[in-house]
Amino acid sequence: QVQLVESGGGLVQPGGSLRLSCAASGNVFGINVMGWYRQAPEKQRELVAVIFNGGSTNYADSVKGRFTISRDNAKNTVYLQMNNLKPEDTAVYYCYFDKLGRGYWGQGTQVTVSS
Known about the structure:
The chain has strands at residues 2-7, 10-12, 18-26, 31-39, 46-51, 57-59, 67-72, 77-82, 91-99, 102-105, 109-113.
């Protein structure tokens, strides 16, 4: 089993920044893909960013140029640096790890962008 623990959410003003972290513990051998999803009220969960074991990344169009995903394999941790935050970024953010084809989700962390 893999356990994921997220941190770093909170309330920030428009234009501000936050950094999310998600650390994996347990049987972490074989983790390949790490990513972040988000779900706003009354909306479907959507992919924000993903990073593969080799370091390649993909981003949702809505966050390109503002968000940066990175990973520390030695710490089994994925990060999401979010800059120039907008009210429409308000959502619960979930980390996602893929281990040998099986997905694991974090508990979610609330990000609220409001003045």
